[in-house]
Amino acid sequence: MGRLVGVDLARALAVFGMYVVHIGPALSATDGVGSWVRYMSDGHSSVLFATLAGFSLMLLAGRREPKTGLAGRQAKARIAIRAVVLPALGTAMAMEYGGVVILGFYGVYFLLALPLLRLRAKTLAIIAAALALVTPQLSFALYSVLTESVRQSINAYDPLHRLSDVGVLDLLFTGFYPTITWIPFVIAGMALARFDLSATAVQRRLAALGAALTVAAYGMSLLLAGKDALRSTAEDGPSSGGSGSMPLDSGSLESQASSLLTAGPHSGTTFDIIGSVGVAILVIVGATVAMDRLPRLRRLAKPVIAVGTMSLTAYVGHFVIQGWLPSFGATNDEESWATLLMFVLGAIVFAAIWSRFFRRGPLEYLLNAATKPAKHIR
What we know:
This protein is mainly alpha-helical and 378 residues long. The protein has one domain. It has 18 helices and no strands. The chain has helices spanning 5-23, 32-41, 44-61, 69-97, 103-113, 121-145, 148-155, 159-164, 168-174, 179-193, 200-225, 253-258, 270-293, 295-300, 302-309, 311-324, 333-355, 362-370. The longest helix is centred in the first third of the chain and has 29 residues, at 69-97. The chain is globular and about 55 Å long. 44% of the residues are buried.
């Protein structure tokens, strides 16, 4: 079966969205089209990444028909190995470059997804929906228990926290991308992978679903929480900066509870999860339709698609280059956009050249090699 070119394009868009968040100007420093691009990238690009990660799990485990028997056991072993390698890479990057790297959270996502690999699309969708409805409220309740002193006590005995300031509590409950409120994105991506995305009828139904989820979630949030319902946590700084879950503020319990009605990026509420899944579905389906029905655009987009085939390399690469070339730090709005454009063009050029000679990106080759021992599973 050939590559899903539309999915590769969606991966490239997720990579570029992360570039916008990490390299582009702060949301508060933008206006017009730039403000829209910055806002849509914040939160939504990492959600798209997580959704596509779930999709990729099904590519390993059998997309339309789950692998069984020996093939199924080996596929689970390959995913389990990735669940170790990617967090190790994310931790190493956090230690070297600082900040929070989403790869560090993928191990928990993947391990929790293992028992779900053989489920049907409908069952996976129901699980994702149920988690979207329940986990934000559970996360909010946990915050009343996980006070600062409690978290410090737990982190003091956590070796992961000593390494990169991202410990078990962060991975599960309190980090930028906590499993408790981010696993629905992965499961939604798994459900999406079960569908035949090349079928016109499926494309129409999924596009309608994505639009309905987006409008319903954000519309209800605006209706219930007012004009600040969609406020981004990145408005005061250049990075995503959100906790990915309920904010630990010093306001009253009533004011904190009211935050459950918002839907801004990284707010981690039910409305945020449902709306963000809707956006991710629209991007994936839209990219698939564009690549299927517009052959000329597909040819023109080939260098961008190449970025999607090596999204891990492109994602890690922008951290490495920033570490090597600290002079890339921008000092104003115009310089930030110029630097961002350089990174995007650099990724496109590198991927286009590399893909002419190799089937996988550099890190994709290494990751694939790391999972080779799964062949010995019997």
